[in-house]
Specification:
Blueprint: H1 6-18, H2 62-72, H3 76-79, E1 80-86, E2 89-94, H4 99-108, E3 116-124, E4 132-140, E5 145-153, E6 159-161, H5 170-181, E7 184-186
Length: about 230
C-alpha cells in the first residue's frame, strides 16, 4: 500500500521500465556541442575542402573523355589545371581564358559530343585567392556521359568568357550567376541583373554578404524595357 497518487505511481513505473531503452542524453539541439554554428557568421570558420587531382586510371569512361579532349584541344595542358574524380563525377578545372574555346571543342568534337549545357552556377570559396568559381554541367546525349567544368577567378578580376555563343541555354544562367556572385561573363549578349534590381549593391550569395538588416522598398518600382537596362562589361 502507498499514499502516492495512482497517476504518479503509473508514471514512475513506466519510466523505470523504459529506462533501459532510452537513448544517451544529448547536449544541445540534435546533439551538437559548442555554439552549433556552421555558417561562419558566429565566428566558427570551417576550412573548405579541395579534392586532390585524380590519378590514372580515372575509371569508367572518364579516361576516354580526357584522352579525346587532349587529342582534340591542342592547348589541353595549358587549359586544364587539374582533373578531379570525386563522388562519381569527372571535373575539369579550367583556366578562365580557355572556357569558351574548350566548351566549343567539347560540343563539336565527334569523340566528345557534349551537346547539352544543363547548368551554369557559382560557388564562393571564401578565403581562397581565386574564391569565385563558375561551374558548368555538361551532358553528352550521344554517348550518355556527364562532365563538370569549373573555372576559378578572383574578386578583383572576376572575368570569364561567356559560353552563350556555344550553348544558348547559358544565357539566363550566366545572368543569374553574375547577379548572385558578381562573376562577369565577357561577350554575353545582355549581361544584366535578373533577380535583383538594377541598382542593387553587392552580390547576395557571396559568403561575405551581410545577413539581413537591408532595407528594401519595391512599392512603385518600375522595370525598364530590356534595351534600356544597364549592361555590365
Amino acid at each position: 500500500m502507498t499514499d502516492q497518487p495512482a497517476g504518479e505511481v503509473e508514471k514512475a513505473t513506466v519510466f523505470r521500465d523504459a529506462l533501459g531503452d532510452l537513448p544517451a542524453p544529448k547536449h544541445g539541439m540534435f546533439g551538437v556541442e559548442g555554439s552549433g554554428d556552421t555558417s561562419g557568421y558566429g565566428g566558427l570558420v570551417r576550412p573548405s575542402w579541395e579534392p586532390p587531382p585524380a590519378q590514372r586510371p580515372y575509371g569508367g569512361y572518364f579516361d576516354e573523355v580526357v584522352d579525346a579532349l587532349s587529342a582534340a584541344y591542342p592547348q589541353f595542358d595549358e587549359a586544364v589545371e587539374r582533373v578531379v574524380v570525386d563522388r562519381g563525377e569527372l571535373t575539369l578545372y579550367v583556366a578562365p581564358e580557355h572556357v569558351r574555346s574548350l566548351a566549343q571543342t567539347l560540343r563539336d568534337d565527334p569523340g566528345l559530343r557534349f551537346e547539352l549545357l544543363s547548368s551554369v552556377s557559382g560557388v564562393d570559396y571564401l578565403g581562397r585567392e581565386r574564391r569565385l568559381h563558375a561551374v558548368y554541367h555538361l551532358t553528352s546525349m550521344t554517348y550518355r556521359r556527364r562532365l563538370r567544368m569549373e573555372a576559378a577567378v578572383s574578386v578583383e578580376d572576376p572575368h570569364v568568357p561567356s559560353v552563350t555563343p556555344v550553348y544558348p541555354t547559358a544565357d539566363w544562367q550566366e545572368r543569374e550567376t553574375f547577379d548572385m556572385f558578381g562573376i562577369v561573363f565577357d561577350g554575353h549578349p545582355g549581361l544584366t541583373r535578373i533577380l535583383m534590381p538594377d541598382d542593387w549593391e553587392g552580390f547576395p550569395q557571396r559568403k561575405d554578404y551581410p545577413l539581413g538588416g537591408i532595407p528594401v522598398q519595391y512599392k512603385g518600382a518600375t522595370i525598364p524595357p530590356p534595351d534600356e537596362r544597364r549592361a555590365y562589361r
